[in-house]
Amino acid sequence: MSKSQKPNKKRTCETGQNHTPGHTNCPGCLGELRSMYTPFTATMLFPEAADIFLAARATINVQSRIQYVAPRTYEQYEDVVRMLGQFFRHLRLDQIDAGHLRTYQKRRANGDGFIRRVGKHNAQQMVATSAGASSINRELATLKQIMIAAQAWTPQLQAMYIPLQEVDSDIPKALGPDEQAHFLATTKANPDWEFLYWYSLVALHTTFSSDEMRTLRQGDINLAQQIVSVNRRHGKNRHRRRSVDLFDGSCLWALEQLIERSVEMVGRGPQRHLFPFRISTGHYDGERSITRTGMRKPFEAARDKAEVPWFCLNGLRHTAITRMAEEGVPIAIIMSRAGHTSPKMTAHYTHISRQAERIALERGWVRGPVAQAAPVRRVRGIELAVV
Fold first, then answer.
1. pTM for the whole structure
2. Are residues 89 and 201 in the same domain?
3. What is the pLDDT of residues 366-378, one digit of tens each?
């Protein structure tokens, strides 16, 4: 059923809230939503089929956490469907052919006709957005899932569709020590970016990714025991669902500020998010976290002011790992603190760690007390320090 066909009559659901039927955050509304939909058919418009696809993967019961897919996965599906809809929204599933798929690949790669929203609700802007091979392949794989369910994916399409060749993505570039100090000073100096300053201090100490940071809840932080844990519902995998010891005073202070800010915005409670979802000016939903786009606008403004326009939000995690590697922290400890990483990342940071070790050894040989003060003796024409 398309959005235009959905009834607008308000009712009270099991959560006690008034909203339009089709809301999927409670069992009653989800059941009604599914009863409203007909099975997939090849003659459906893409938006109608996409609605059914998402509804079939929505959480059954929020309170008991009965779900088909993890919340993070569902958010990714929503993002994918949103992008697919910008191209396929006027097509029936049985009208989509190999030419459409190839055109989608080209336009999506160039950002031709694809946009995303940035900024606050009252001042949103639409900006062009492109994607890499991996994202495009993932989006078309989702389209393929929908079309298979509707029996619209034909043998001819299967034979003609060629996924893009994926190139190993680069590890996000880390800030250098001076760049890091300048970025922190920039966010600290602007009251509008104060929460970003606290955010950065925590991310640089914990090695948390941007998703791990934005989904933190008050209950995930134990200041008494000096431990912070990744939100178990949003960890990327079992290795990343971890608890990290806190031993940096700046990080502990920043967490105190963020908790106080969260309490002021949505009240106190273990399930209240540290970065709550903004409903409207001055109104927040503590049960939901800020979205990726909600974090993006202030971060991009701050990084441009700090003159590091290439820096991405997830780069704070890699900056933290790089600093530890440069300081000679054993790679096993780094990987344990950061959670499981890919072999490529492990090799990258191992190389940095070995470089730091070599530099330290070279400095030790040149400037060390043995080389400077120890007596020497000559053996076969070679001077050796006597230790």
1. 0.62
2. no
3. 444 444 444 444 5
